[in-house]
Design a protein that fits this description.
alpha/beta, five-stranded parallel beta sheet, 22 helices, globular, binds glucose-6-phosphate
């Protein structure tokens, strides 16, 4: 079913026409309680959604849309392990990765929770050994550097989590991340590292991804060269995270040093599986488990809370409201927390790879826009660059502000100044500055229009007490389930990624054409043929 066919969609279209000019200034003036009423405080996360261009009627219709789309049944289907990723015929069970030991989640008649915990225990053993200095390298020296090699879902989560939870990390261990097949990425990552003290984690669900396998082979050569070429050293300096034991063994990593996950975990939903091994080594098993507990608390909230106070559902409905009715093209993610600097990049994959789809589950063109483009930077830095467009440009950019009550580094006045900026920004966006107010400041007539802020620019403010592993887990799960809800309403498959798969295949063919001794017979379009020839010519000049 196309989402535009739901009665609530039609009602929302009419409602949008009626209310699209309504000003937040007016909505707040009419209802002095609005700023307290349109909030939700659940699972330790506070969401203020009052500065959105919505009325009670909008919320009612959006929730009706969720009901008509069968959201409740779709949530249950995911949690029950049904194969909701229909194009890959797979269950979607990242929620099982953070289920407590006592839980039971069935896939093909088997409870998967025990294997999740066996794997967590195995990760914890390795992590403890590395952290204590008990896992020694080939020459007997302790490991001081951990380099995760992976890309996409096998990189973005670990990078983001390492940065986000650095405060909790063991500071005499260094974690680095290599993802790009551009040799500079690897070269810079190991430039100042000693192979005798370096452990590589090769993270790849399939263990066939071109970038990761190229980097992994280069890492093995670098490691062997630094350790006297003894192949026995690989066992001490390489571990693998994968679902593909055969390929791991072929690479030369003992499968005893392989950390497994399963095909019901999508790449972009895998940072809390064994893919999080580097995170666990950095912050320790206890902190990692506390992060999983945060995820689980948000899972339970999402599964059980009524839609009117369900945080992921509310956020998803607002995204649909702006994307499909206001024709907003993007969402800005603006964490006022320096440690979350990679959070927007992480969310880009989670949101856009999941919901960047053009057909419904029935394979017909979807009749509305699907995922908006997510982007963002930490505040206050963004304020001194792109916020100009959000305040005074011609486009509508819904914003998610993220802030924490308590700082991790209570330095002087910094935290109050930081938080003052978050609140000032969302206030200015919502209420703007009228020409009368600008003139009252003594601004001349000709300059007034340039200094007017129209306001009526929507935002959410998400607050939690402090950035901890547990809070991070909750925040990630909040967005995961918001993405799920959006996909459920658009009736698309949020869990496949055929666009990514295509890229993996296409490059392989051209690699051979670039590397062949003889000039290859090219059968691409004239532009691609020309670019290939040009590159071959430049190579020869070197
Ligand atoms: C994630 C995607 C994609 C994937 C990478 C790496 O959902 O499928 O980003 O994670 O392409 O794949 P491997 O882990 O198999 O190397």
């Amino acid at each position: 079913m196309n989402p535009t066919q739901y009665p609530a969609w039609k009602a929302l279209t009419a409602h949008y026409k009626k209310t699209r000019r309504v000003q937040l200034r007016k909505l707040f003036a009419q209802d002095p309680q609005r700023g307290e009423r349109l909030t939700a405080d659940e699972a330790g996360i506070f969401l203020d959604y009052s500065k959105n261009r919505i009325t009670d009627e909008t919320l009612h219709l959006l929730q009706q849309l969720a009901n008509e789309a069968g959201l409740r049944a779709k949530i249950d289907a995911m949690f029950n392990g049904e194969k909701i990723n229909i194009t890959e015929n797979r269950s979607v069970l990242h929620v099982a990765l953070r289920a407590p030991r006592s839980a039971s989640i069935m896939v093909d008649g088997q409870n998967v929770v025990p294997q999740v915990h066996t794997m967590l225990d195995k990760m914890a053993q390795l992590s403890e050994r590395v952290r204590r200095g008990a896992w020694t390298g080939h020459t007997g020296r302790r490991i001081r550097n951990v380099v995760n090699i992976g890309i996409g879902g096998s990189d973005l989560g670990p990078v983001m989590a390492y940065e986000a939870l650095r405060y909790y990390s063991q500071r005499d261990l260094t974690c680095r991340f290599v993802s790009n097949v551009d040799g500079s990425d690897f070269a810079e990552a190991v430039l100042d590292l000693d192979p005798a003290e370096t452990l590589f984690i090769i993270s790849s669900k399939t263990f066939t991804t071109l970038e990761t396998m190229t980097n992994a082979h280069t890492a093995r050569e670098w490691s062997l060269a630094g350790l006297g070429g003894d192949p026995a050293s690989v066992a001490k300096h390489f571990v693998a995270v994968s679902t593909n034991a055969r390929e791991v063994a072929k690479f030369g990593i003992d499968t005893a040093n392989m950390f497994e996950f399963w095909d019901w975990v999508g790449g972009r939903y895998s940072m809390d599986s064994a893919i999080g091994l580097s995170t666990m080594i950095a912050i320790g098993p206890e902190n990692f488990r506390s992060m999983l507990d945060g995820f689980h608390q948000m899972d339970e909230h999402f599964r059980s809370a009524p839609f009117e106070r369900n945080l992921p559902v509310l956020m998803a409905l607002l995204t649909i409201w702006y994307t499909d009715f206001f024709d907003a093209h993007t969402v800005a993610i603006l964490p006022y927390e320096q440690y979350l600097k990679r959070f927007p990049a992480y969310l880009q994959q989670l949101t856009m790879e999941s919901n960047g789809k053009h057909v419904t589950l029935d394979g017909v063109r979807v009749q509305c826009d699907t995922s908006p483009i997510y982007w963002g930077e930490p505040g206050t830095n963004g304020q001194h660059s792109f916020y100009q467009l959000i305040h005074q440009g011609t486009r509508l950019v819904p914003c998610d502000f993220i802030a924490f009550g308590k700082p991790l580094h209570p330095v002087g006045r910094h935290h109050d100044i930081l938080l003052a900026n978050v609140f000032a920004q969302s206030e200015a966006l919502a209420f703007g500055k009228t020409s009368r107010q600008v003139k009252a400041d003594g601004t001349s007539d000709w300059l007034t229009p340039h200094r007017v802020f129209e306001g009526n620019r929507p935002s959410n403010t998400i607050m939690a007490e402090r950035l901890t592993p547990e809070t991070l887990g909750k925040l990630i799960a909040l967005y995961e389930h918001s993405v799920f809800t959006q996909g459920a309403i658009w009736n698309i498959d949020s869990f496949d990624q055929w666009g990514v798969e295509l890229g993996k295949v296409l490059a392989q063919r051209i690699v051979a054409e670039l590397e062949s001794e003889e000039a290859p017979k090219l059968a691409h379009d004239s532009s691609t043929n020309h670019l290939i020839r040009r590159h071959r010519m430049l190579k020869e000049k070197r």
